[in-house]
Amino acid sequence: MHCGASKIIFQYAELLRKNMTEAEKIVWEKLSNNKLDIRIRRQHQIHKYIADFYCHELKLIIEIDGDIHLAKEHKEYDINRDITLSEFGIQILRFTNHQVINNIDEIINEIKKKVVEIKLKQYSSAK
Fold first, then answer.
1. Phi, psi at residue 81, to the nearest 5°?
2. Is 90 exposed, middle or buried (0-12, 13-18, 19+ CB in 10 A)?
3. What is the pLDDT of residues 31-85, one digit of tens each?
4. What's 7-126's CATH class?
5. What is the pairing mode between strands 49-55 and 41-46?
């Protein structure tokens, strides 16, 4: 589940959980306590990365990106990170802080659609 995450990554994830952004708090309010009938973890460590939100059952990461993700260097980092995480069979949904703050209902609907899509694939492949 953690794919070899180091102790430092675990400590940093704990710090991030204590200092969530406003957009992350909004999403967490909608996802916590199995509100979508799946268990979501926040600031979850995977390999050498920390996912904003992660569902292990579905191997799904939900990222909430601030303005820093617009910088060229950070875009390259995100691309490499996504490639590495996809090698673990993980899918990633990305939303911006702006999208979350201005249209949380649409974001939650997109997440719900992805959850249904993954569950259907899992069900079909289990047959």
1. -60, -45
2. buried
3. 999 999 999 999 888 888 889 999 999 999 999 987 665 666 767 888 888 999 9
4. alpha beta
5. antiparallel
Q: Rounded distance, CA 84 to CA 90, Å?
A: 9
Distance CA(71)–CA(111), nearest Å, equals 25
Report domain extents, the chain: 7-126
Is residue 60 within 8 A of residue 91, CB to CB? The reply is yes
CA 36 to CA 28: how far, in whole Å?
Answer: 12
Identify the H or E element spanning 13: helix 7-18
3-state secondary structure of 104: helix
